[in-house]
Amino acid sequence: MDGSMCAGLFTRRFGPPPREGLPTTVLVHGLGLSGRYFVPLARRLAAGGTTVLVPDLPGNARSRGVVRRTPDMGEVAAALARWHRRLSLGPTVAVGNSVGCQVVASFAAQHPDAVRRTVLLAPALEPRTAALRHFGRLLADAPREPLALLALAATDYLLTGPVRCALSFRHALRDADAAFEQHLARIDAPTLVVRGTGDTIVTAAWSRRVAGLVPRGQAVDVPGTAHAAHYSAPDTIARLIRDFSAKEDT
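^ thats the sequence. predicted structure below, dont judge the formating
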């Protein structure tokens, strides 16, 4: 793994450098976090020869200093698009987790030529749901996650800062109510929606709705996992992404 500031964002790279004509997989983290919790998944994807890039989004963790104020979801998606363009990546497999799915949806909807496939892992936040209800779902999910993940997340939240986490959550709630479903409906790329059956944050009904909103969407459940299935079951998620990425366009 290599990690450094790259095209304006701190970026971890797994596998070979990006190569022209071969798709790169980009992993987009959730609210207040860094790309560190993607390491188990990224290593497994890279083991098959895939180039995997994991940026810390602007305002988060090791990219905290690249912005002075907390960006809204549209600004984060625009920053991801600039990063993608500066690296000349070509069509990518864009993978988001949790609120990162909102970033991926916005990016894919507005830059269809930059995305070959999208994978939405536990897409949050569900529109028209109160903040307190979201928070309650998060608290219910925590005991279902590995302790190592909880420790990693706590460190990242402190690095990002509680004020920025709170502002980012407010921006994400507004985006969920105003734009998330519209962006999903505009995604042209084949899209896989993945939900752990033990996820208390993303309901089964919402996961199916997300897949139904995307013109070429499909949903799959991963038994025995919660919100961060990519961390607790990286082999399973890596296999799903590899198989989905290898399919012919339809």
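Strands lie at 2-6, 9-14, 24-28, 51-55, 92-97, 115-121, 191-196, 217-222.
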